[in-house]
Specification:
By secondary structure, the protein is an alpha+beta fold. The chain has 2 helices and 6 strands; from the N terminus they run ββββαββα. The protein has one domain: YggU-like (Conserved Hypothetical Protein Mth637, Chain: A, 2-Layer Sandwich). Strands 1, 2, 3, 4, 5 and 6 form a 6-stranded mixed β-sheet that branches.
Length: 104
Amino acid sequence: MKKKFNLHDGKHGAALTVRVTPRARRTEIADISDNGTLRIRVAASTRDGEANQKLLKFLEKVLQVEKQRLEIVAGENGLDKIISVLEMSSADAEELIEEWIDNN
Protein backbone atom coordinates (compact mmCIF):
# COMPACT_ATOMS: atom_id res chain seq x y z
CA MET A 1 0.00 0.00 0.00
CA LYS A 2 1.36 3.42 -0.95
CA LYS A 3 1.91 6.04 1.72
CA LYS A 4 -0.19 9.16 1.31
CA PHE A 5 1.29 12.63 0.96
CA ASN A 6 0.46 15.44 3.31
CA LEU A 7 -1.24 17.63 0.69
CA HIS A 8 -3.96 20.16 1.31
CA ASP A 9 -6.17 22.35 -0.81
CA GLY A 10 -5.25 25.92 0.06
CA LYS A 11 -7.12 29.11 -0.72
CA HIS A 12 -5.55 29.38 -4.19
CA GLY A 13 -4.13 25.89 -4.78
CA ALA A 14 -2.36 22.95 -3.22
CA ALA A 15 0.08 23.04 -0.31
CA LEU A 16 2.57 20.27 0.32
CA THR A 17 4.91 19.60 3.19
CA VAL A 18 8.49 18.86 2.22
CA ARG A 19 11.58 17.77 4.17
CA VAL A 20 14.74 18.78 2.28
CA THR A 21 18.09 17.00 2.50
CA PRO A 22 20.71 19.38 1.06
CA ARG A 23 24.13 18.47 -0.38
CA ALA A 24 22.89 15.22 -1.94
CA ARG A 25 24.50 13.56 -4.95
CA ARG A 26 21.44 14.26 -7.06
CA THR A 27 18.10 15.98 -6.75
CA GLU A 28 15.32 13.43 -6.32
CA ILE A 29 12.28 12.41 -4.34
CA ALA A 30 13.71 10.19 -1.60
CA ASP A 31 10.45 8.89 -0.14
CA ILE A 32 7.32 9.80 1.74
CA SER A 33 7.69 9.78 5.52
CA ASP A 34 5.13 8.19 7.81
CA ASN A 35 3.50 11.55 8.54
CA GLY A 36 2.95 12.18 4.80
CA THR A 37 5.83 14.62 4.27
CA LEU A 38 7.54 14.40 0.90
CA ARG A 39 11.29 13.91 1.45
CA ILE A 40 13.40 15.44 -1.32
CA ARG A 41 17.18 15.23 -1.67
CA VAL A 42 18.69 18.35 -3.25
CA ALA A 43 22.07 18.54 -5.00
CA ALA A 44 22.88 21.99 -3.60
CA SER A 45 24.06 23.54 -0.36
CA THR A 46 21.96 25.75 1.86
CA ARG A 47 24.32 28.68 1.21
CA ASP A 48 22.64 31.74 -0.30
CA GLY A 49 19.34 29.91 -0.81
CA GLU A 50 20.83 27.49 -3.36
CA ALA A 51 18.93 24.50 -1.97
CA ASN A 52 15.62 26.38 -2.08
CA GLN A 53 16.22 27.43 -5.67
CA LYS A 54 17.13 23.87 -6.69
CA LEU A 55 14.07 22.52 -4.83
CA LEU A 56 11.70 24.88 -6.65
CA LYS A 57 13.35 24.14 -10.02
CA PHE A 58 12.89 20.40 -9.37
CA LEU A 59 9.25 20.84 -8.33
CA GLU A 60 8.64 22.81 -11.54
CA LYS A 61 9.50 19.63 -13.47
CA VAL A 62 7.64 17.24 -11.20
CA LEU A 63 4.44 19.31 -11.07
CA GLN A 64 4.74 20.62 -14.64
CA VAL A 65 4.22 24.25 -13.59
CA GLU A 66 5.99 27.54 -14.09
CA LYS A 67 8.21 28.81 -11.28
CA GLN A 68 5.91 31.72 -10.42
CA ARG A 69 3.22 29.21 -9.41
CA LEU A 70 5.47 27.79 -6.66
CA GLU A 71 6.22 29.50 -3.37
CA ILE A 72 7.85 28.48 -0.12
CA VAL A 73 5.28 29.79 2.34
CA ALA A 74 6.91 28.40 5.50
CA GLY A 75 10.35 27.09 6.44
CA GLU A 76 12.44 29.05 3.95
CA ASN A 77 15.45 28.90 6.30
CA GLY A 78 14.85 25.38 7.61
CA LEU A 79 14.75 21.85 6.28
CA ASP A 80 10.99 21.44 6.75
CA LYS A 81 8.98 23.54 4.31
CA ILE A 82 5.46 24.15 3.12
CA ILE A 83 5.25 24.72 -0.63
CA SER A 84 2.25 26.43 -2.18
CA VAL A 85 1.29 25.40 -5.72
CA LEU A 86 -1.02 28.02 -7.15
CA GLU A 87 -3.96 26.99 -9.32
CA MET A 88 -3.52 23.25 -8.73
CA SER A 89 -5.64 20.97 -6.58
CA SER A 90 -4.02 18.65 -4.08
CA ALA A 91 -5.42 15.69 -6.06
CA ASP A 92 -3.70 16.89 -9.25
CA ALA A 93 -0.42 17.51 -7.38
CA GLU A 94 -0.57 14.06 -5.81
CA GLU A 95 -1.20 12.42 -9.18
CA LEU A 96 1.81 14.19 -10.75
CA ILE A 97 4.08 13.32 -7.82
CA GLU A 98 3.03 9.65 -7.92
CA GLU A 99 3.62 9.58 -11.68
CA TRP A 100 7.11 11.06 -11.17
CA ILE A 101 7.94 8.50 -8.45
CA ASP A 102 6.73 5.62 -10.63
CA ASN A 103 8.75 6.77 -13.67
CA ASN A 104 12.01 7.85 -12.03
